[in-house]
Amino acid sequence: MSSSSNTNLKELVLNGIVKENTIFKLALSLCPSIAVTNSLKNGIYMGLAVLFVQVMVNLTISLMRNIIHPKVRLPIFMLVISGWVTVTQLLMAAFVPDVYAKVGLYIALIVAFASILARAEMFASKNSFLPSMADGLGMGIGFLFALTTISFFRELLGKGSLTVPTGLATQHVFTFINTKPLLIMVLPAGGFLAVGILMALFNWINARYAAKAASH
Amino acid sequence: MSSEFTKLFELIVSASLINNFVFTRFLGLCIFFGVSKKMETAVGMSITFTAVMMISAAISWVIFNLVLVPLDITFLEIIVFIGIIAGLVQVSDTIMRKVSPGLYYKLGIYLALISTNCIILAVPLVSAGEKYSFIQSLAFGLGSGLGFALALIIMASIREKLELAEVPAPFKGLPMAFVVTGLIALAFTGFSGLITL
Q1: What's this model's pTM, rounded to 2 decimal places?
Q2: Domain extent listing, chain B
Q3: Does Cell membrane show up as a keyword for this record (chain B) (predicted)?
């Protein structure tokens, strides 16, 4: 990994969003992808929380990588992660209490995200802080993207409306249909269905893309 | 006394069926999709999980109520609980290897997976949030474990059959597993309202 070029950093960011998308490709950290995605607002806030924790953890680990003894690295990583998660939790409880009331448990459970520990172990503990930050940013944005997509479809189909966060308040955007919406999409069962179908869509697009590239 | 007992029973039923961790709270999904391919591993995982859940519920309750609450540092609960679980996993790993190598050979691999699993961490977090008594949080741990076991075993038996089914190419593997889980979750919504706590 050369330390110089900007393209490298860009590639690192893109890698997390497309090639190794945590949810659609690696199928890790799935719990919140279904739990909080029955409204767009919650999905976005959850995604932002994960983005924040991922970047900060990568940064901290890469700065500390020369002091951490390899034998105790895992407990140290867990400590760093749970520290940043607690920070996120307190921040959210203070600034967006209505969201926190709904997604609080899942914010706490970011600690147990395999993806965050995996990036700390595989990337941040071996690279300097700039690439580590890019890596964290890519992974986090990929996660945010996945949560936003899932919650967009679920709220649109399940409630027939959308809410987006504007600043700290939330706003009702528009009503899609005035008849009875598909209630199942906001129920737990709908979450599994939506993720399954979106994953299949991702696979299908990838397969088409690969076939096109091969024929050229 | 008897009403106390009914309450505990209700707690177990509600934790395992109505608020099933997998189908209504969406926790432990990584493990759920990871190990539900074969019945044998699913059963092994369920046993290990239920045991670890009950033990960690007990230890966490003691530490939360006897240390964190008196010192007024409950905001440290995440760090403390994850520490307890990681330590517990390490200890049971060592004990199992010494005492029963046969069992360790079978279940050891699952133990390592447990420390990064949200469902185990959720049990102490929820029981701290709901202010359960000691016995109640034990019952909650047991119920959650049984619910997880039920979900894993249902899923494993469906997925063994699914191997032979014709599935459209983009849906192969995980996407299909998600759709199947969605359908099971739909069935589980039938349990809601069974007991009102």
Answers
A1: 0.75
A2: 2-191
A3: yes
